[in-house]
Amino acid sequence: MGLIRFVAMDSDVARAYRNGVPDAYGRRPERRISTGSGVPCRHCLRTVPEGKPYLILAYRPFPDLQPYAETGPVFLCAEACERVQESDVMPDLLRAGTQWLLRGYGDDDRIVYGTGDVVPQQHICTRAHELLQRDDIAYLHVRSAKYNCYQARIERA
Q1: What confidence tens digit (pLDDT) does each residue in 3-43 have?
Q2: 93 near 152, Cβ under 8 Å?
Q3: d(C-alpha 133, C-alpha 128), whole Å
Q4: What's the CA angle centered on 143, arms 120 and 98, to 5 degrees?
């Protein structure tokens, strides 16, 4: 195994949303049908296939409310999907984009200033490894460079 690992949305969390548990805004996830592009599931870290149902929901990938606990829209396969295995192998979802925002967070789940960078897809692993060598960074978020939507988490292996 490598020095980093990509981490998708927890299966229990995904299952709860599929069963209608309210999202971060207290609303039931919305159900739509995929057109086959632009609908990245945060559990399997793949694009929801054309014609398949998916959910849109407000997601807060932080344990508690605090000023840096960003909430935003994410997609999730409406039908059960296999969670991507945690590993140092870049998930399919991240291979599809050209640029991603990487941002470091401390043990207190707050942004570590100076760590936010728009990174070309081919440099994600290198930049993640560099950031995670710092003692003040506990984990990273990978977010859309265009929309700032949360995609996945990167941790030390």
Answers
A1: 999 999 999 999 999 999 999 999 999 999 999 988 999 99
A2: yes
A3: 9
A4: 30
Helix (H) or strand (E) holding 129: helix 124-132
Contact 131, 87 (CB under 8 A): no
What single DSSP character describes residue 124? H
* Euclidean distance between CA atoms 6 and 96, whole angstroms: 15
Enumerate the domain spans of the chain. 10-77, 86-156
Residues in contact with 16: Cβ distance below 8 Å, sequence separation at least 6, in sequence order: none
What pTM did the predictor assign? 0.95
DSSP 8-state class, residue 56: E
The fold of 10-77 is first zn-finger domain of poly(adp-ribose) polymerase-1 (3.30.1740)
Euclidean distance between CA atoms 115 and 69, whole angstroms? 16
